[in-house]
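Minutes, project check-in
Item: structure for the 193-residue chain
Input as provided by the requester:
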Amino acid sequence: MDRRIFRTRTMIFQAFLVILQKKPYHEISIVDIAEQADINRSTFYAHFIDKEDLLQKMIADKLDLLAERIRIGVEPSHSTPSFNDPDLIFLALFEHVFEHDYFYQVMLPKDAAGDFRNQFNGLIREAFFARLSKLGIEQKLQVPLDILLDYISCSTIGIMEKWLTDSKIYSPHHMALQLTRLGFLGIYKSTGM
């Protein structure tokens, strides 16, 4: 992508996020976005059809980056996670969210903004499903696969949201390691039961 186009789109994305933090999605107008980005409406329309197109492209941009990061991080390793090293999927997730924290702080709590939470949840589910498929352990599962994947993805998103709310007091590596250890121990062993 041409650098000027990339820069303009980035400015529009940032402006949109700033407004989303202040206003519900349905109340935002193209004029609001153009004024916040310090562009005219024709520039906006040169890049996006409407605000829904903007929202979907912004979400796709971030989730594509995340999916690529997970793929690159996990691909070279064919080993299973260990108790003393963070799971590479968790590590990729937390590092990505750390680098794009403003986006996630705005988008995770928003229910109506482009169905982002469900798309993010789906990406996490797909990553862990792909791992399980490669390991070929579907027959050994102790709980139904859909419940397992929901548990992993929903709990991960909940922890990330809390981590962002708490100003990321722990490093991405630390968070990934703790979720890895929770995975090894399970809830009851983690509490000492």
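Outcome recorded: The radius of gyration is 19 Å.
No further action items on this chain.
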